[in-house]
Amino acid sequence: MEKIRKIGVFSFAKFQAFMGLFIGFVFGILYSFGGLIIDILVSLEWITSTETPGLSYGTILAFGALIGMPIIGAVLGFIFGIIQAILFNFTSNWFGGIFLEIKS
Q1: 76, 19 Cβ separation under 8 angstroms
Q2: Which positions ≥6 away from 61 have C-beta within 8 Å?
Q3: Which of 61, 70, 95, 98 could pair covalently with 24 via S-S, beta carbons 3.0-4.6 A apart?
Q4: Which phi and psi angles does 23 have, rounded to 5°?
Q5: Please, is 13 exposed, middle or buried when counting C-beta atoms within 10 Å of its C-beta (0-12, 13-18, 19+)?
Q6: Is residue 69 within 8 Å of residue 25, measured between CB atoms?
Q7: Cα dist. 11→6, 17, 18, 29, 41 in Å?
């Protein structure tokens, strides 16, 4: 068994930024297309809603989430990745690190 006692701060932050980008993209797709479906259903009068008038400029703007949410996820992932790596490096001696079993 190998033991991890230190993590490279910026390499972990880059990994977390990538994960945040991916998760932000998935949520952006769900938000944009979910809103589109609701707006279409309201426009066709299949459902009623006081929250949305149906298809409008807001529907187009919701597709901005396909760009905005991945950017926000990547930035927050990078920042929190730095914080997590620093905290791990600071506290890993107290709890013994992380044990990994590596097969070659």
Answers
A1: no
A2: none
A3: 70
A4: -65, -40
A5: buried
A6: yes
A7: 12, 10, 11, 27, 45
Mean pLDDT by 10 residues, the chain (104 residues): 89 97 96 88 84 78 91 98 96 88 85
What pLDDT sits at residue 12? 96
Residue position matching structure tokens 């006081």: 50
Q: Give dist(CA 65, CA 69) in Å, integer.
A: 5
| Tokens coding 11 | 């390499």
User: Which residue, 11, 23, 31, 10, is CA-closest to 71?
Assistant: 23
Q: What per-residue confidence (pLDDT) applies to 47?
A: 84
**Residue type present at position 85:** A
- What are 8's two structure tokens? 């490279």
Structure tokens belonging to residue 53: 């008038």
